[in-house]
Amino acid sequence: MSEAASHVASGKVRELYAVDGERLLLVASDRISTFDVVLPTEVPDKGRVLTGLSGFWFAETGHIVPNHLLSLGTDGRSTECRRLEMLPIECVVRGYLAGSGWKDYRATGEVCGHRLPTGLTESDRLPEPIFTPATKAQTGHDENIDRAAAVALVGESLCDEVEELTLELYRFVSERALERGIILADTKLEFGLDGNRQLVLADEAFTPDSSRFWPADGYTPGGPQPSFDKQFVRDYCESLGWDKTYPGPELPAEVVEGTRARYIEAFELLTGTDFADYLADPEVVLG
């Protein structure tokens, strides 16, 4: 880390430092959040998995949209990136019916304004991937919104552009992931504008924190799926009857170990790189 870097902000998982007027340093911790609450127990190496996978997908999708990555740190958990004007929405795309989308569908037959066919079951593949934006909550829970609300926040032209990019990125990555035995059920992306008002992919990309990953060989619609993401932690927290407000519950060792193993397995399957090789040389994921 540059001696001149000054701490700017703390997110649920990342610490943000200013390097200079053009560059930021993002440091991914091992904190884990669920239901938008940071839990008191950390998951070892989780931050390195997020950083390495993001770096991998930034490199793989650079032909679709530019991204903010300038370099990966030798610690495997820090990235130097471009400063951007971040958009005030989260760009979510769903290819399968799960999570809050499944809850909304059961209640209304719709997900973020998209009317879906009747008779779908939990984890069903959707006829086409759908763009389902959400607000960025500084405190509390992010909220699903429809397209009209997203347009009100960013304008129609920009909303059209991020919707098109989000869907294109999802289609590309979901096909690549499926070739490696992983279903990308849904994912959340964030975009910013550079000095030329061009859209740039930022934050993290296609990680177990921002995506719902399922093993393809065990996929059976009609209920919840086994996962490579933090659903394992969500399920444990749900089993406690926790009210999903701060403070969150401590995680037992078996949940921590199981979560770490799932994150590393997802990393290795998606990148084709041994996690130990990444730790030795993080830039191996950049190709």
Explain this structure to me?
The protein has 287 residues and is an alpha+beta fold. It is built from seven helices and 16 strands. It has helices at residues 46-60, 99-108, 147-154, 156-179, 231-239, 253-271, 275-280; strands spanning 6-10, 14-18, 23-28, 33-34, 37-38, 69-72, 78-82, 85-86, 89-96, 110-111, 114-115, 125-131, 134-135, 182-193, 199-202, 211-215. Strands 8, 9, 12, 13, 14, 15 and 16 form a seven-stranded antiparallel β-sheet that branches. Strand 14 and strand 15 form a beta hairpin. Helix 1 (46-60) packs parallel to helix 6 and helix 3 crosses helix 4 (156-179). The chain starts with 5 loop residues before the first strand and ends in a 7-residue tail after the last helix. The mean pLDDT is 94.
In a nutshell, what does this entry contain?
Helix content is 32%, strand content 25%.
Summary keywords:
single chain; 287 residues; alpha+beta; 5-stranded antiparallel sheet
Which helices and strands appear, and what pairs or packs with what?
Layout: E1 6-10, E2 14-18, E3 23-28, E4 33-34, E5 37-38, H1 46-60, E6 69-72, E7 78-82, E8 85-86, E9 89-96, H2 99-108, E10 110-111, E11 114-115, E12 125-131, E13 134-135, H3 147-154, H4 156-179, E14 182-193, E15 199-202, E16 211-215, H5 231-239, H6 253-271, H7 275-280
Antiparallel strand pairs: 1-2, 2-3, 3-7, 4-5, 6-7, 8-14, 9-12, 9-13, 9-14, 10-11, 14-15, 14-16
Helix pairs in contact: 1-6, 3-4
Span between termini: 24 Å
- The whole-number mean of residue pLDDT values reads 94
Report the structural category.
alpha+beta
Major sheet details: 7 strands, antiparallel
Number of helices: 7
> What radius of gyration results from the CA coordinates?
18 Å
Uncertain runs are: none
Helix content: 25-40%
